[in-house]
Design a protein that fits this description.
mainly beta; 1 helix
């Protein structure tokens, strides 16, 4: 459970499952009295919206997820890539917006692209 006041009051709970290599395999997120999503990934960059039973091609190639209401998911690519201290790399992740920003289910962190809800 996460609650906050950034950009208004919100509360929600989430579940992010990875495989043993820290590749995102499933994400479930529900905001209190708000949007919900449930997606699965194959760990190789193919994503599926479980609720709508459709492929999420806009996320093709994304291995990691970044859930906006928690910093916890920021550590997933660090663990997966085994980055050394102060090391960095560029990557595109599946970003889940704040509750008041959700006009799409997912957007990539790279060039502006999104899928309508």
């Amino acid at each position: 459970m996460v609650a906050g006041t950034r950009q208004g009051l919100y509360g929600g709970h989430y579940f992010a499952r990875t495989d043993s290599a820290f590749r995102t395999r499933e994400v479930w997120l529900a905001y209190v009295d708000g949007p919900r999503l449930h997606v699965e990934a194959d760990g190789e960059g193919t994503w599926r919206d479980v609720i709508r039973d459709r492929a999420l091609r806009v996320l093709s190639g994304c291995i990691d997820v970044d859930i906006g209401i928690t910093p916890v998911t920021n550590s997933l690519p660090v663990k997966r890539l085994r980055l050394a201290e102060h090391a960095s790399c560029d990557m595109t992740v599946a970003y889940v917006s704040q509750t008041d920003q959700i006009s799409c289910v997912f957007a990539t962190s790279g060039p502006s692209s999104a899928i309508p809800a």
